[in-house]
């Protein structure tokens, strides 16, 4: 398999269009047409990880964090980023990153945290804006169903757990073909009135190329009239963080003891405990202090995240506990998630879980 074939499988799980605008995801180093000898999955790509990949005959490293986040102006080996990229190029190891594309899907970083904690009735904490678009097109009534099926196959009309979602209105379309036209109905030079159906379908932004390709390939008219409009609706099944419920409520202390055991973190920084039991839990892997207000609004009793600053702990007040379990610790299971997914999709391929410790933080 080629790099592109494997990354296409990864993008079925987490399309790159779902990533945040500030992010740098996808293939960062390497030839997309290179044949892959093996895949090494890691949280971070460092020099030691590239060396491990070479030892294991893996020429594709799939990471969560991107090693290239800001533009490189030189490759002199002055920084760990430059050295890592240069080493990958020297050994022809491709580097691919998923980062916030995987953050924003339900079965991604935060979904895995919920699984480890055993949370139930989970939902997205901060639904993502700007990911839904709407297609409006016009088709002869008798060919409406055939076109709809092709658009559904391309990914249009999917709303949460519902598929084949559409709305149609009936009316009369008019057009005057020129002498150079080759109309499917009507005649050149004559005004034509056609009983038509107006179709409305929504789709996620990552599906737009496929949806438009299906429209152009299967619309009966020589020139398909259509509109694509971005919607301001938040996507309830995409976004940052998740919130769920414990099977049985417990005290904040009991819950953090459970977290310490399951995440292996030697130290949890937290705001003051309140008197209520912990029942509803919000989670956001990585740097998640920006989710404090959303977690409070969702009625969470505690927010688990990392990289919380001093003043952010005050924002929780007495209504919610904020617990910083560490950036690495909160995202550590992401690489296991990716290995399991790739193994399921390509079971006869060499896929390795990196053994290199990449957490830059040590505890004394």
UniProtKB/TrEMBL annotation:
Keywords, A to Z, come to:
Metal-binding
The superkingdom of the source organism is Bacteria
**UniProt-listed Gene3D superfamilies:** 3.30.70.120, NIF3 (NGG1p interacting factor 3)-like
For this protein, the record's Pfam families field holds:
DUF34_NIF3 (PF01784)
Q: Which NCBIfam families does the annotation name?
A: YbgI_SA1388
Family, per the entry? Belongs to the GTP cyclohydrolase I type 2/NIF3 family.
Mind telling me what this protein is named? GTP cyclohydrolase 1 type 2 homolog
